[in-house]
TrEMBL record:
One GO BP annotation of this record: glutamate biosynthetic process
Keyword 4Fe-4S: no
Keywords assigned: Acetylation, Hydrolase
EC number: 3.5.1.2
Native source species: Anabaena sphaerica FACHB-251
Any one Gene Ontology molecular-function term assigned to this protein's record: glutaminase activity
Entry protein name: Glutaminase
Gene3D superfamilies assigned: DD-peptidase/beta-lactamase superfamily
Reactions catalysed, as given in the entry: L-glutamine + H2O = L-glutamate + NH4(+)
Entries under InterPro entries matching the protein: Beta-lactam/transpept-like, Glutaminase
């Protein structure tokens, strides 16, 4: 299987990519294991059968199958992009004083900080993500939210909005995240106004996207920060290595090591059931299926990525690859 679509491959519906996606979709459609996220009451209402896979290449081709237009909230996948924004707002050195780059080996919502530095371990778990969000610049809550919505627009290529029901559902039940924020406030890792930081964090998680959007966002990272469809620059290319490194080591929480070993590409999941995966210089992958495994990763999503990685030879250290 060639990695890049050649001129004949590019026609949607007849390319090897399309065939692989159709194959994987029909293979895993009937897999009914796992459960939808229930700790955020609004998320528990999702249809568990929804399932879509999308690939966006860095030369602007899109391949998709299943419910790819279905909207859902981006949840933890937001952490990747907000980390990029915080890096742009403050630079690498300052951001490193507030959030580390070490995997936790713990669940995404574990209430833990690094013993010595008191920093949250990394920006891909809730603690680190709340700290990252608290770094977003802006004059007041509205401006900060608008800056994040504008950031999403650059990556996706259209305007996005916050789902108010999911946002309020999460805000009224997010006691664990509130506890985490208080712990970080205690150690001076985030500033006084933690309610505002938490609101912005819950809002960034409640932005509605579809599977195609996920693939285009991932492809933008694969394309050095430039959206391959709109050609707009979404993030400074100098921060791509920071973003992809923490995705690679921490993006799948306490499954990150096994993911890196088996699948071998930077990725991030969210409790909505979305996964993004980035093949640098080649493509972004988006998968959406709300049935989650015990670690909060999309069950079908993990299987699809594992098989895509094998069939297309995507593992970064695959010897048959380009290095
Ligand atoms: N893993 C996730 O997607 C978690 C995000 C969710 N908004 C939370 O804070 O719990």
């Amino acid at each position: 299987m060639s990695l890049m679509a050649n001129s004949q491959d590019q026609e949607i519906g007849s390319s090897p990519f399309s065939e692989v996606l159709k194959d994987l979709h029909s293979q895993y459609k009937s897999l009914q294991e796992g459960t939808v996220a229930k700790y955020i009451p609004e998320l528990a209402k999702v249809n568990p059968n929804l399932f879509s896979i999308c690939i966006a290449t860095t030369d602007g081709q899109i391949y998709e199958v299943g419910d790819y237009q279905q909207l859902f909230t981006i949840q933890s996948i937001s952490k990747v992009f907000v980390y990029g924004q915080a890096l742009e707002d403050h630079g690498r050195d300052y951001v490193l004083t507030r959030v580390g780059v070490e995997p936790t080996g713990e669940a995404f919502n574990a209430i833990i900080l690094d013993e010595q530095s008191k920093r949250p371990y990394n920006p891909m778990v809730n603690a680190g993500a709340i700290a990252t969000t608290s770094l977003i610049k802006g004059n007041g809550a509205t401006e900060r939210l608008n800056r994040l919505l504008e950031m999403y627009r650059r990556y996706i290529g259209r305007d996005v909005f916050v789902d108010i029901s999911v946002f309020t559902s999460e805000r009224s039940t997010g006691h664990r995240n509130r506890a985490t924020a208080h712990l970080m406030l205690n150690f001076g890792m985030i500033d006084q106004n933690i309610e505002e930081a938490l609101d912005l964090y819950f809002q960034q998680c409640s932005v509605m996207v579809n599977c195609r959007d996920l693939a285009v966002m991932a492809a933008t990272l694969a394309n050095k920060g430039v959206n391959p469809i709109s050609k707009e620059k979404a993030v400074d290319s100098c921060y791509i290595k920071d973003i992809l490194s923490v995705m690679y080591t921490c993006g799948m929480y306490n499954f990150a090591g096994e993911w890196a070993y088996k699948i071998g590409i930077p990725a991030k999941s969210g409790v909505c059931g979305g996964i993004i995966a980035v093949v640098p210089g080649q493509m972004g992958i988006g998968v959406f299926s709300p049935l989650l495994d015990a670690r909060g990763n999309s069950l079908r999503g993990v299987k699809v990525c594992e098989e895509l990685s094998q069939r297309l030879g995507l593992h970064l250290f695959e010897c048959a690859g380009n290095w």
